[in-house]
Amino acid sequence: MIKYALACKQGHEFESWFSDSLAYEQQAKRGQVECPHCGSTQVDKALMAPSISTSKRKARNAFIDGAKGGAPVQEPEARTIASQSAPLLDDKQRAMRDMIRDLHAKIAENTVDVGAGFVEQARKMNDGDIPQLAIRGEATIAQARELWEEGVPVMPVPVLPEDRN
Ligand SMILES: [Zn+2]
After folding, report:
1. Which three-class secondary structure state does DSSP give residue 113?
2. Spacing, Cα 114 to ligand 1 middle (Å)
3. Could you tell me which of 101, 100, 143, 99 has the C-alpha nearest to residue 120?
4. From ligand 1's centre to the CA of 31, what distance in Å?
5. Which range in 30-39, 78-87, 90-99 is most confidently predicted, on average pLDDT?
6. Which of 29-33, 54-58, 134-138 is predicted most confidently?
7. CA 165 – ligand 1 centroid, Å
8. Which DSSP category does 19 fall into?
9. Ligand 1 centroid vs 35 CA: distance in angstroms?
10. 48 alpha carbon to ligand 1 midpoint, in Å?
């Protein structure tokens, strides 16, 4: 079984299990892979960002390494939101931040931190060299994309805008 992060044409992201990568390709081609949010069958593999990280400093560095040019991707947007006074937007941003915090806590609870060994461990696990285990660690966007192309299921974790400072 293999888990894919998918996204529909509307940008909804979701995950789905397939027996193997070929099964995914066939089902997707036949329009049997459906977005659970809007029912669209126009889905594709979601683009991977750096995987889970516990060290905020390292996460930021990994992110910057991965993003060519070195600019943290979320920062300008976060600043724009912060400078606006619309209360609705503030509430939304707060809710988003709480959600990401919860996500981080859940991930920390349920995965083993392998730090910089993430890419190697994930690859070994996928090859069956070591037992399957939920792990978190650091990877650059390029590394995560490589893993993804090899069929290794990896999941990006958003970093809180305030953690980037
Ligand atoms: Zn959708």
Report:
1. strand
2. 33
3. 143
4. 13
5. 30-39
6. 29-33
7. 33
8. S
9. 5
10. 18
Task: Find the range with the poorest average confidence among 21-25, 53-57, 111-115.
Answer: 53-57
Statement: the pTM of the whole predicted model exceeds 0.70: no
What is the domain partition of the chain in residue ranges? 2-45, 56-164
2-8 and 13-18 as β-strands: parallel, antiparallel, unpaired? antiparallel
Query: Token pair for residue 14?
Result: 């979701």
Per the CB < 8 A criterion, the answer to whether 160 and 101 are in contact is: yes
d(CA 140, CA 63): 6
What band does 142 get if pLDDT is binned at 50, 70 and 90?
A: confident
Helices (H), the chain: 21-29, 56-66, 75-83, 87-110, 118-127, 141-149
